TrEMBL record:
Record keywords, A-Z: Acyltransferase, Transferase
Taxonomic lineage of the native organism: Bacteria, Pseudomonadati, Pseudomonadota, Gammaproteobacteria, Enterobacterales
InterPro entries per the UniProt record, alphabetical: Acyl_CoA_acyltransferase, GNAT_dom, YpeA/RimI_acetyltransf
Full protein name: GNAT family N-acetyltransferase
Organism per entry: Rouxiella silvae
PANTHER family per the UniProt record, alphabetical: ACETYLTRANSFERASE, ACETYLTRANSFERASE YPEA
Residue stretches making up the N-acetyltransferase domain: 2-154
Gene3D superfamilies in the record: 3.40.630.30
Domain of life: Bacteria
Length: 154
């Protein structure tokens, strides 16, 4: 149904715009940041975590594509790799492609890829106001291991 393929530089530029917008919105919702502060933080975070973009060490940045159309892009998946563990830094299905089983298929393909790389555990964070994402992750075998909390001191 889907495949994960390495992202190219042009695709990374598109992804960067989407990531910053989505992460900034998450920061506004969960951390009560102003729009400007959230966008700046999102941009700085991406640049810090992927300093060489798609060539950054210990990261896999993939486009999610349809097998029937390998150059299509229906979403993005960015995974950080730490020894034999992985962390999903970002997982995004484009709005027009949601609710078609592609998210589940992408997570299953990711598991196969990670196992092939010698990874034996994968984690993630899900925003509290995103129950559909939480439900998807639970259907795919993820379970709650803790709760993140923070307080803004400004």
């Amino acid at each position: 149904m889907i495949l994960l393929r390495d992202m190219n530089a042009e695709e990374f530029a598109k992804y960067r715009t989407i990531f910053i917008g989505e992460y900034a919105q998450d920061l506004q919702n969960t951390r009560v940041y102003s729009a400007e502060k959230a966008r700046n933080q999102a941009s700085e975070t991406l640049d810090m975590m992927l300093p060489q973009g798609i060539e950054s060490h210990d990261n896999a940045v993939w486009c999610i594509s349809l097998c029937a159309e390998p150059q299509s892009t229906v979403g993005y998946l960015w995974v950080g790799l730490i020894r034999q563990a992985a962390w999903i830094n970002d997982f995004y299905i484009l709005p027009d492609w949601r609710n078609r089983g592609l998210g589940r298929a992408a997570l299953m393909e990711m598991k196969v890829r990670l196992k092939g790389m010698g990874i034996n555990e994968v984690g993630l964070r899900v925003a509290p106001e995103n129950p559909s994402a939480k439900a998807l992750y639970e259907k795919c075998g993820f379970h709650i291991t803790g709760i993140n909390m923070s307080q803004n001191l400004n």
